[in-house]
Amino acid sequence: MHNKKLKEASCFGKLAVGNVWVYGGEEAKNSKGVVKICHFLGLQVDSHEGHIILYKSWPLDYKIVPSQKSRIRSSVSEVQEEQNQKPGVVKRAYPFDEIEPKWQRYWEENRIFRTPDDVDTSKPKYYVLDMFPYPSGAGLHGYNVLHPMGWDAFGLPAEQYAIETGTHPKLTTLRNINRFRSQLKSLGFSYDWDREISTIEPDYYKWTQWIFLQLLKRGLAYQAEVPVNWCPALGTVLANEEVVDGVSERGGHPVIRKPMRQWMLKITAYADRLLEDLDELDWPESIKEMQRNWIGRSEGAEVEFSVLDSDGRETNMKITVYTTRPDTIFGATYLVVAPEYTLLSSIVSAEQRECVEEYQDIASRKSDLERAELQKEKTGVFSGCYAKNPTSGEPIPIWVADYVLGSYGTGAIMAVPAHDARDHEFASKFNIPIKWVVTPNNGSCIESENAYSGEGIIINSSNMEVGLDINGLSSKEAAYKVIEWAEKTGKGKKKVNYKLRDWLFARQRYWGEPIPVIFLEDRGESIPVLETELPLTLPELDDFTPSGTGEPPLSKAVSWVKTIDPSSGKPAMRETNTMPQWAGSCWYYLRFMDPKNSNALVDKAKEKYWSPVDVYVGGAEHAVLHLLYSRFWHKVLYDIGVVSTKEPFKCVINQGIILGEVQFMAYKDTDGNYVSADSADELGEYLQEIIPEERVVKSGEFYVLKDNPNIRLIARAHKMSKSRGNVVNPDDVVSEYGADSLRLYEMFMGPFRDSKTWNTSGIEGVHRFLGRTWRLIVGSPLHHGAFRDGTLVTDEEPTTEQLRALHKCIAKVTEEIEGTRFNTGISAMMEFVNAAYKWDKHPKAIIEAFVLLLSPYAPHIAEELWSRLGHPDSIAYEAFPKADPMYLKESTIVLPVQINGKTRGTIEVEKGCSEEDAFTLASKDEKLSKYLDGKSIKKRIFVPGKILNVILDRQTAKAGSVQ
Ligand code: ANZ
User: Fold this and answer.
1) Gap from CA of 423 to ligand 1 centroid (Å)
2) Which of the listed residues 336, 389, 420 should we mutate to test ligand 1's pocket, taking the one with most ligand atoms within 8 A of CB?
3) Which of 64-68, 352-356, 732-736 is predicted least confidently?
4) Among 850, 851, 770, 857, which Cα is nearest to 822's?
5) What confidence category does residue 10 fall into, taking pLDDT thresholds of 50, 70 and 90?
6) The Leucyl-tRNA synthetase editing domain covers which part of the protein (predicted)?
7) Considering only CA atoms, which of 743, 721, 656 is closest in space to residue 186?
8) Which of 775, 895, 782, 881 has the alpha carbon at shortest distance from 837?
9) How far apart are CA 568 and CA 209, in angstroms?
């Protein structure tokens, strides 16, 4: 098969195959010095009787092409494409399974991503805190980068598992941590593992407890009777997530709300600051808005309504309502108190008592969320008692209804059915009068079917007996005047309210931080544990089951519970409630700055240098609780001088969730016939069937059954969940394609912040790209499947074209990193590799810069290539390449070329190119030359930058074979 004409390569990279010299090839000689295997542009080639053999896969799968330069080029591209698409070759497009573990070991042994304890603080810093890969190497050269990882390890699932299996939560948790850690390491994230922390370690929770003591000292931690989810059958308090539709998730037993002593944190004292400081943060607007709504500041008034006795006379009893619309007060035709309103039992009439109590009982089983649902039909009972509207002087009934919450405002409202939708619905149902007191500004359309809840001009609102007339005023002016009147007459005052509630901080659980408080046995008074006694460690327990009395499981650790008050020497009991899981995660970002400090939560100088976190990457599900709780604690720590910034996280980025693979669903009627998804109105009545992908084809915009295109299907991606069976396990993906492919794919799927749909063929695509990159730089596998050492790069100066391609790619990748659109940056790298395949030579300077660009995305392959390019040190410390604007200017244009007025092709020319140069280029062009060769030219029409039209002499044109 070997061609005798095969010449020896005269220099590296230039190779004669058959009678053609090709560049960018390489050779391998057998023991007799005969050239056996040659590579051309990463493809294995051979020659035979004036033909070139291009191997798709050596030795059996090949293509023979005549040895003409142009044919070889196009055939090489074709074979490479086929090679990329061939199943079987797809997997392991390059030896990732050797490269990845090698570099993971190297990073670990050399602590490549470690942030030294004593950094040079004259340099700028960048603190990246995340739960997700973030290419922190990019654009950060010259910075000290802190990129840590730790574990929020207390919590309910481990405890539930302990109750079911008897396995100690610590064991379960440590097992999970180990698994997580090795998973993260196998993905090659650049975490500084020297700073790993875990919230369950006493060295860590010592400081969680210390913060609690500071809160206690400042009156920000207090005890209160608060309703909890109590399940009498299980004898335990349940977390909200353990209660489903009013019954326990386990066992389905009824759950009631029962008041119990709890620790509360006074986050409401920080409500205004939590709200105001949001403005300065570089966070997604949607999260800021959710926090604003959660804090729910509203401005209004508290107004007193006197309760009337059965003869209609005013009593001393008052009901204070909270309203945001004092302008509507003349329209208040009834009052509503929440079922748990404390004064209720003293106002309810004898006749109504029984039905009110029954109503209270039912309401006690509903959560606030259920009660506040707008769509729910309103329920309520009459209290049998009346109050006086202080403005109109009219008696109005007092009702009890669960749409008013005991925990908001004063737990009582003045109901204005004309102007509030809930009140309107309620009044219509119970035949309570509706009085219209606001008209829209144009004065039209009142007394409609629905409430008019907008602002407007006040009507029907004057009573000179009480000295109040607001008719004709705007809502704003009227509200102001009513508040002024109420303050003057002592009937009310201006009031700001927050939806934000104090934070219920106690859990009746074992697996949490013990609350460092003791109670004197005789007086029940609470005394903080001394700071010097911290950490107060969690005692070992073998039995985690609930006590049955509502007492937390820790009460079973009798010898731990019994203690002595060190100051009085009196016997005391330890608090047996523990902290919620939120506690440990409230301040962990501070500990990462100084994880081993045993004297302070964080060293002042280190905190000052590293604070605040520059980018915090996490899921949008943490929009309120975690992000609000940590902001609260941070502000308290700021007030007591522990931290130097008002806010913990300068910038927050939410990564989008990744949905499972698209599933196709067909509808079937009861006889088992398919029904097209577009033809039936009430598809809800049909059965659904999941259709495997092989049976689906795309028809226009829609998906249909392959064997019956009339049946349209529903295509939908769902959140990954065990129950749906659409979970993609990263371990499997890593073993099949490698961590670099997984990382790259996750970023390639779409903009970082958007939700995306997993697609297994998509990962094959990026894997092929890495394979192509590998072959471009290292070459194709040798005949025994292994790869050559080193690379194919050459030492030549790069050409302008190559520099342009590179710098365009650098500019795009850099810009897209800044906008967290990694996907389009990756596309730019793909384009670069495609362009580079067309080059004869691959200068080292160009390839090195490209490998640097790739390194944050696919760090393993990048390290390997970097080391093959002759660098002894890790690529992690290299500067990210910078785009040189000189190469970004588009200096060439594509010029259409016409022959006799017909466009026959295009040429690429310099912008200011002359007519002569354009014509020379056109006549050399492969496609155009056949129209021009041997013809005489009659005329040339050249519009610079627009067109070149060549008019041929008729005679010779006719004589030619083309036209
Ligand atoms: C009279 C009125 C007239 C109201 C009107 C609204 C419109 P925000 O903005 O959320 O603070 N409210 C007060 N306390 C309540 C409670 N515990 N449970 C349920 N609703 C309560 O809303 C304040 C308004 O919600 C208050 O203003 C009150 O109804 C109601 F045309 O008073 B309003």
Assistant:
1) 10
2) 420
3) 64-68
4) 857
5) very low
6) 292-486
7) 743
8) 775
9) 22
- Whether the predicted pLDDT of 42 surpasses 70: no
Ligand 1 neighbourhood includes 328 CB (under 6 angstroms): yes
- Identify the residue whose tokens are 């670069």: 832
Checking if the pLDDT of 29 tops 50, the result is no
State the distance from the centre of ligand 1 to the C-alpha of 420, rounded, in angstroms: 8
CA–CA distance, 379 with 359 (Å, rounded to integer):
9
Q: Phi and psi of 400, rounded to 5°?
A: -115, 125
Q: What are phi and psi of 712, to 5 degrees?
A: -85, 145
Is 323 touching ligand 1 by the criterion CB < 6 Å? yes
The CA-CA-CA angle for residues 589, 594, 595, to 5°, reads: 80
What is the whole-number distance in angstroms between the Cα of residue 408 and the centre of ligand 1?
A: 9
Check if the beta carbon of residue 704 is closer than 8 Å to that of residue 710: yes
Q: Is the CB of 452 under 6 A from ligand 1?
A: no
Contact 860, 740 (CB under 8 A): yes
Per-residue pLDDT band at 886 (split at 50, 70, 90) = confident
Rounded distance, CA 5 to CA 270, Å?
A: 86
Q: How far is the CA of 419 from the centre of ligand 1 (A)?
A: 11
DSSP-H helix ranges across 528-592: 558-561, 582-585, 588-591
Ligand 1 centroid–CA 277 distance in Å is 26
Query: How many Å apart are CA 823 and CA 780, to the nearest integer?
Result: 27
Q: Of the ranges 354-358, 502-506, 852-856, which one carries the lowest mean pLDDT score?
A: 502-506
**Which residue would you say has higher pLDDT here, 100 or 22?**
100
What is the whole-number distance in angstroms between the Cα of residue 405 and the centre of ligand 1? 10
To 5 degrees, how large is the angle CA 49–CA 54–CA 58? 110
Long-range contacts of 155-162 (CB under 8 A, 24+ apart): 155/511, 155/512, 155/581, 156/239, 156/241, 156/242, 156/509, 156/511, 156/581, 158/511, 159/509, 159/510, 159/511, 159/544, 162/510, 162/511, 162/544
Other CB atoms within 10 Å distance of the CB of residue 150: 22
**Is the entire prediction scored with pTM above 0.70?**
yes
- Which residue's CA is the nearest one to ligand 1's atom 2? 325
pLDDT of res. 933: 86
Which residue would you say has higher pLDDT here, 716 or 47?
716
Q: Are 712 and 704 in contact (CB under 8 A)?
A: yes
Q: Look up residue 234 and give its two tokens.
A: 């299980």
Q: How confident is the model at residue 718 (pLDDT cuts 50, 70, 90)?
A: confident
Q: Show the tokens assigned to 51.
A: 């033909």
Give ∠ CA 246-247-250 in degrees, rounded to 5: 150
Would you say the CB of residue 767 lies under 6 angstroms from ligand 1? Answer: no
Q: How far is the CA of 369 from the centre of ligand 1 (A)?
A: 16
In 3D space, the residue among 637, 625, 631 whose CA is nearest the CA of residue 580 turns out to be 625
The residue nearest atom 27 of ligand 1, judged by CA position, is 323
Bridge partner list, 563: 572
Query: Which residue blocks in 431-552 are alpha helix, DSSP H?
Result: 475-489
> Does residue 134 line the site of ligand 1, with CB under 6 A?
no
Q: Measuring from atom 11 of ligand 1, which residue has the nearest CA?
A: 298
Instruction: Give the mutation target among 319, 324, 344, 496 for probing the ligand 1 site: most ligand atoms within 8 A of CB.
Output: 324
Q: How far is the CA of 692 from the centre of ligand 1 (A)?
A: 52
SS3 content of the chain, % helix, strand, coil (to 5): 35, 25, 40
Q: Whose CA is nearest to atom 20 of ligand 1?
A: 404
Mean pLDDT, the chain, integer? 85
Residue 556 has pLDDT above 60, yes or no: yes
Any idea which of 63-72, 268-277, 501-510, 558-567 has the lowest mean pLDDT?
63-72
CA of 128 to the centre of ligand 1 (A): 42
